Amino acid sequence: MSNNSIIKVEGLHKSYKTGNNALHVLKGIDLDIKAGEMVSIMGSSGSGKSTLLNILGILDSHDSGNYYLDNIRIEKMNETKAARFRNNYIGFVFQSFNLISFKNAMENVALPLYYKNISRKKRNQMALEYLDRMGLKEWANHLPAELSGGQKQRIAIARALISKPKVILADEPTGALDSQTSFEVMDILQEVNQMGITVIIVTHENDIAHRTQRIIRLRDGIIGENKINGNFQPVNNEIFTSS
Ligand code: ADP
Ligand code: MG
Known about the structure:
By secondary structure, the protein is α/β, with parallel strands linked by helices.
């Protein structure tokens, strides 16, 4: 196995049991994503994109096949061990932001550090630093309901970054945003990638996929076309280069 694969999947299968029936969603997925890549996963609704992303993020388990995360074989594991892997490797970004409504922006960003034995003072200080990088420091004390969709997604990205993950998994991160805001969120995800973090984005929007280096297509439970993106436009922004 080549060593710079951060994510390597071989012959991965996943079915859901619904009553007496099994819905075979992933039918032998092969995937090789190198550390530092920025890729998109496309496919029609119901094609298994979220299922695949949840397995990559160890939120769900596969039935058969191999999954290596940073060259470590991921098998069925208890929730404590899965949580430890997720904390060390993965940051999630969701379409619906998944912010805690009764916690302010700073507290939401700080949350992943709660499990890391870091004092509250230090957690909040780090959260403010990440909010600042997102241009949201002055919103630290606001609740999610007081923020726009784009602001909420930037807070979710700050929360995903605060535990210094190797991989960001984003499931339709722009699905709830207008096109201008979507492009701003993609700017940020490109900057995150330029920090050296591997970024995997599920999307069904072509113009979003075209801002990644490679488009992976999921069709009928397998990976179809897997093409290098000729239209890829890297950004060169200053936000993350200061610290
Ligand atoms: P996508 O993200 O590409 O829209 P999903 O991975 O969410 O697709 O779902 C793939 C298929 O699996 C769909 O038919 C969906 O209804 C089904 N499915 C997803 N999650 C479950 C589950 N927990 N139990 C049963 N069926 C599920
Ligand atoms: Mg989905």
